[in-house]
Amino acid sequence: MRALWKFAKLEESYVLPGLGFLNRYGLLRANIGIVCPNCHAEFKVVQTQIRIVRVISWAIFFVIALLLGAWFRRVGFSIRLELGILVAALYGLALLQAYLAPYLAQTRPRGSSESLSYPLKSAYGAN
């Protein structure tokens, strides 16, 4: 999975323009599949677990931000310090989610009627 995300990020850095494998949230667009290099079995990449973890982590982040904001105001921290901490935490959460995405992706066997694109299939030779 890491190879698939690395390939998709290459496209995003305009090394391979026009493919558009990643959306603006770092998830794969459309129906992407992978092929086992040994047995040539085809699998669909499922991103449901990535989406669930992202929704939960953003909800936790905003709850913690609200609680810390109320505490900071009671203690007397400046608004600039609050905003600096918030921006740093947002950046850290976004980096963590981008790093974890390939590890949270799952695969399932390709359905007979599913149309998938296989961006890494040429890396293992056309079959």
What is the gist of this entry?
The protein is mainly α.
Main sheet, how many strands, which sense, barrel?
A: 3 strands, antiparallel
Number of contiguous helices: 3
| Shape, per Cα inertia axes | elongated
DSSP strand content:
5-15%
- Spans of at least 5 consecutive residues whose pLDDT stays below 50 are none
Helix-strand makeup class: mainly alpha
Number of domains: 2
**Quaternary organization:** single chain
Question: What is the average of the pLDDT values?
Answer: 78
| Alpha-carbon distance between the two ends | 20 Å
| Number of strand elements | 3
Secondary-structure element order, N to C: HEEHHE
- The neighbouring-strand order within the major sheet is 1-2-3
Helix content: 40-55%
Q: Radius of gyration, rounded?
A: 19 Å
Report on the structure:
By secondary structure, the chain is mainly α. The protein folds into two domains: 1-47 and 107-127, no CATH class; 48-104. Helices cover 51% and strands 9% of the residues. It has helices at residues 2-12, 48-75, 79-104; strands at residues 33-35, 42-46, 106-109. The protein has a three-stranded antiparallel β-sheet with strand order 1-2-3, with no helix packed on it. Helix 2 (48-75) packs antiparallel against helix 3. It is elongated, with a radius of gyration of 19 Å. The two termini are 20 Å apart.
Features:
elongated; mainly alpha; 127 residues; 2 domains; 3-stranded antiparallel beta sheet; 3 helices; 9% strand; 3 strands
Topology:
Elements: H1 2-12, E1 33-35, E2 42-46, H2 48-75, H3 79-104, E3 106-109
Antiparallel strand pairs: 1-2, 2-3
